Amino acid sequence: MPHPLELLRPKSLKRLSEHLQSLIRGRLWLKILIGMALGIGVGTVLGPSVGLVPPKTANLIGNWLAVPGQLFLALIQMIVIPLVFASVILGITASEDMEQLKKLGLRISVYFVMTTSVAITIGICVALLIKPGQFVESELVRKTIEKGVAIEEPEAVSTPTLEELPEKIVTLLPTNPLSAMVRGQMLQIVMFAIIFGLALVTLAPKQARPLLNLLSSLQEVCMTVVKWAMLLAPLAVFGLLAQITTKIGLEVLFGMGIYVGTVLLGLFILLCLYLLIVSVISRRSPWKFLSAVRDVQLLAFSTSSSAAVMPVSIKTAEEKLGVRSSISQFLIPLGATINMDGTALYQGVATIFLAQVFGVDLGVSGLLLVIVTAVGASIGSPGTPGVGIVILATVLDSVGIPLSGIALIIGVDRILDMSRTAVNVTGDLTACTVMDRWVGGKGTSELSPVQ
Question: Which of 49, 170, 352, 397 has its CA 20 to 30 A from that of 327?
Fold first, then answer.
């Protein structure tokens, strides 16, 4: 029996998912790949590798070509906070009862922290084994850094001591939610949304109805903006890759091949871990699971945003995986914010890679600090394109690796961002199947799960 509040709420996400899936049927992913190839080609012709035009002219052309990409990023970043806020609250109100919410909240928190820690450990181990930093020449590093590729450097983040820990825990609750939204503090926003949603569940349906209608309308408006952003995706990828290649040249991209391969290998191992979890814990066929989530993976790969594909993720969880709506509509929006296993793995590989390039000896204590910092930085970061670079700057700063090294890897980050986002959404759907089995096993969905 669904919660009374769920009956009051229009299924806007399911309806909006039909438009996003039409993009998949229209081969958006193929258009993205074509945009990637053309972007690299145009950037190579304009950049230092060929030198068809003077460097100043090439930079000017690259900046104009990147305008659609900057608009795409701005639209997604603009809308992700209200989208996640509304989706988390509406997901909580879809729950069947408070007891289920209590079980789900506790178990999913432990699950997310564990899988994120495992993911970054996989990244560190793969990087230590392959040692991609040894395949990059110091001259290549110097030339790349001299190009002055712009990066966003966050404020310095330090690991709290035991004395500071109580204060840090208290700051998870925003004293001023509007200020947290303005500053983009996603973890505080999620905490506020959870408390708001729990309070809403306790109200009588008649009292809660106006707020639920408002939040549903807000959610639909946000996804409409996402739909507009999707139209720019192929041009965005083309322009951003053309701009980067124009600045750094094709030589740098090829020189980073071992690093890219290391990240992709780590992501593949993580994907295999998900399939093992699906098979052993969820007791489903891993191959049918992969077939069911294929559309979500393609759309996530195309957009580089786990928040943007939430409607398709929810619909896939409910209709193809048989997950109860009370689980999927709470977990998917939450996972888009605090469950970034693919991003965490990338942080591990990138940190070890740059440590090898700059000759920084991290040691056991440094590696542990990387794990703790990456897990903490990944939780609460918005599921928007390019956020991995900002998180990486925080991780590098914590272990004393020069932030200028980010200029070396930013050229290939677009490809890796797309790949790790596809893994991120796969992790969210894997968590849905696990929680659907672990939390309230009697109330399974009427839809048949993948067997």
Answer: 170
* Closest residue by Cα to residue 59 from 225, 249, 187, 267: 249
Contact between 242 and 43 under an 8 Å Cβ cutoff? The reply is yes
* CB 180 within 8 Å of CB 188: yes
Most confident of 6-10, 62-66, 122-126: 122-126
Query: Can you give the length of the chain in residues?
Result: 451
Helical ranges in 131-232 per DSSP H: 138-146, 165-170, 177-182, 186-202, 205-231
Nearest of 237, 223, 308, 312 to residue 25 by alpha carbon:
312
On whether the CB atoms of residues 296 and 313 are closer than 8 A, the answer is yes
Domains of the chain, by residue range, sit at 4-438
Packing angle, helices 186-202 and 98-130, rounded to 10? 160
Q: Which residues of 59-87 are buried (b: 16+ CB within 10 A; e: fewer)?
A: bebbeebbebbebbbebbbebbbbbbbbb
- φ/ψ of residue 9, rounded to 5: -100, 125
Tell me the C-alpha distance between 333 and 428, whole Å. 9
Select from 41, 76, 22, 414 the least CA-distant residue to 237. Answer: 414
Q: Residue 428 and residue 416: Cα distance in Å, rounded? A: 18
Instruction: Report the range of poorest mean pLDDT among 19-23, 149-153, 305-309, 425-429.
Output: 149-153
Give the torsion through C-alpha atoms of 42, 65, 262, 409, to 10 deg: 110
Q: Can you spell out the DSSP letters for 224-282?
A: HHHHHHHHTHHHHHHHHHHHHHHHHHHHHHHHTHHHHHHHHHHHHHHHHHHHHHHHHTS
Model pLDDT, residue 204: 81
Q: CA-CA distances (angstroms) from residue 419 to 29, 189, 414?
A: 12, 27, 9
Of 39, 420, 12, the closest CA to residue 233 belongs to: 39
Reply yes or no on whether the pLDDT at 102 is more than 90: no
3-state secondary structure of 178: helix
Q: 380: alpha, beta or left, given left = phi > 0 and alpha = psi -120 to 50?
A: left
Q: List, as one string, the DSSP characters of 19-68.
A: HHHHHHHTTHHHHHHHHHHHHHHHHHHHSTTT--S-HHHHHHHHHHHTHH
CATH superfamily for 4-438 is Sodium:dicarboxylate symporter (1.10.3860.10)
